[in-house]
Amino acid sequence: MEFITLNNGVKMPAEGIGTFLLTPDEAETAVLSALKDGARLIDTANAYCNEKAVGRAMKKSGLLREEIFLETKLWPTFYTDADAVDKTLARLDTDYIDLLLIHQPAGDYVAGYRLMEKAYKEGKVRAIGLSNFNEEQIKEILSICEVKPTILQTEVHPYAQQKKLKAFLAENGMVIQAWYPLGHADKGLLEEPLFTRLAAKYGKSNVQIILRWHIQAGNVVIPGSKNPAHIHDNFDVFDFALTDAEMQEITTLNKDKRYYEVTEDKLAAFATMFPPVDDQK
Questions:
Q1: I need a labelling partner for 114 at 20 to 30 A (CA). Which of 37, 80, 180, 255 fits?
Q2: Neighbours of 23 (CB within 10 A)
Q3: What are the TM regions of this chain, as residue ranges (predicted)?
Q4: What mean pLDDT is predicted for residues 19-36?
């Protein structure tokens, strides 16, 4: 595993497993599988309704809590709840969260950020950050924050490399974390001739080439899967390195193509949606 250091000195694995769209049973099995394969970063969220399952998998893994980097996200309808972080901790069955994010720039996200700052100061959270925020929204948080955000989780892949946003984040001491790191499994992206050529050269798969590109580009990556073989292969990317020329070749694939667009209507809906967090297995 390789690591990045956040702006508050906390070390974070460069790759982990995402649990978006996984049922509790799927999440528990996938996280256990990933931890056995060397993963130490787990990403979940209030809205995924599988936090309890993630907590169970962590316990069942036999690993010490401090060996695992646990990341989760607060949902907009909980931003103004004084006990939102404590309830999240209870669902995860843990005393602290390594990285807590504001999930969406919807509702009273400033109140949500204040809630995270308080939890950080109380030692319940080791680092805080943002998810799905654009540059202007990040600037707003930077202008009012007492504890600086460490990371932005957003859509990043070879077709949407987010160069301008990454430069802005770097100027402000923030790291980018990629969801949809494989472009929502777009066949056109996964079967790019460049990746096929590099996969043949290194004895890897096209997916492994893409994940290796992310890591060398400084992107923290959280591919999601419930397939044990895929999970294993996703973490088998630390025994080779792409050359500078190959990294530059991949740069030319950028199309600023996103597979998910945040609209005002979606954000308005998020601000009134209550995930059934208390009903999860």
A1: 180
A2: 17
A3: none
A4: 98
- 81-89, Cβ contacts within 8 angstroms, sequence gap of 24 or more: 81/115, 82/115, 84/112, 84/115, 85/115, 85/116, 85/118, 85/119, 85/124, 85/125, 86/124, 87/277, 88/46, 88/51, 89/124
DSSP string computed for 102-164: E--S-SSHHHHHHHHHHHHHTTSBS-EEEES--HHHHHHHHHH-SS---EEEEE-BTTB--HH
Question: Which helix (H) or strand (E) element contains residue 6?
Answer: none
14 secondary structure, DSSP code = S
76-120 pLDDT tens trace: 999 999 999 999 999 999 999 999 999 999 999 999 999 999 999
Alpha carbon distance 32, 62 (integer Å): 10
Q: Are 124 and 97 in contact (CB under 8 A)?
A: yes
Among the listed residues 48, 79, 159, 180, the single catalytic one is 48
Q: Where are the beta strands (DSSP E) in 2-119?
A: 3-5, 11-13, 17-18, 41-43, 69-74, 99-102
Dist. CA 255–CA 166, nearest whole Å: 16
130-182 tens-digit pLDDT: 999 999 999 999 999 999 999 999 999 999 999 999 999 999 999 999 999 99
